[in-house]
């Protein structure tokens, strides 16, 4: 992984804005515009809280969020009780929320591609490392907690 995962999200989001300038998509009515913006605010709020909470837990446990470094602690509390990847989920919800607030339809579509990449390339690599470091404990955790939600 030469590009840190948060930057992969940012690049996908910005690429969506660029495509949106080339091929604009508008929300048809004031009602749906308001719905999109309210959902965007909710998504952004939940995403920020989730990402900050997960980051804070890693800081408190004195372990790294950098997937290229060896983790020193195995976290299973807080949002990690419900998702094995709350930081990535928080990033997605935050960027999707901003897209909803500003009605950047293409950004949401490209963020879905980013999530597919993270889900099929990044997370499996991270899970192999966690399996290597924490073996049976990680396997038990993985069997009871979903990858995303």
- What can be said about the biggest beta sheet? none
Strand proportion, as a percent range, falls in under 5%
Report the mean per-residue pLDDT as an integer: 94
Could you say which structural class the secondary elements and strand pairing correspond to?
A: mainly alpha
Terminal residue distance: 24 Å
Q: How would you sum up the global shape?
A: elongated
Task: Give the helix/strand layout.
Blueprint: H1 5-22, H2 30-60, H3 86-101, H4 105-144
Describe the structure in brief.
By secondary structure, this protein is mainly α.
Protein described:
By secondary structure, the protein is mostly helical. The chain has helices at 5-22, 30-60, 86-101, 105-144. The chain has one domain (28-144). The protein is elongated, with a radius of gyration of 17 Å. The mean pLDDT is 94.
């Amino acid at each position: 992984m030469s590009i840190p995962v948060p930057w992969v999200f940012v690049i996908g989001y910005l690429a969506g804005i660029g495509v949106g300038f080339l091929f604009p998509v508008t929300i048809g009515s004031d009602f749906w515009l308001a719905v999109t913006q309210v959902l965007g605010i909710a998504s952004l709020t939940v995403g920020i809280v989730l990402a900050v909470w997960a980051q804070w837990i890693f800081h408190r446990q004195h372990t790294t969020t950098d997937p290229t470094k060896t983790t020193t602690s195995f976290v299973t509390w807080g949002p990690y009780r419900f998702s094995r990847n709350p930081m990535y989920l928080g990033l997605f919800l935050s960027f999707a929320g901003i897209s909803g607030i500003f009605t950047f339809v293409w950004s949401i579509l490209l963020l879905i591609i980013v999530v597919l990449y993270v889900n099929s390339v990044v997370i499996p690599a991270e899970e192999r490392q966690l399996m290597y470091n924490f073996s049976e404990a990680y396997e038990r955790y993985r069997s009871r907690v979903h990858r995303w939600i």
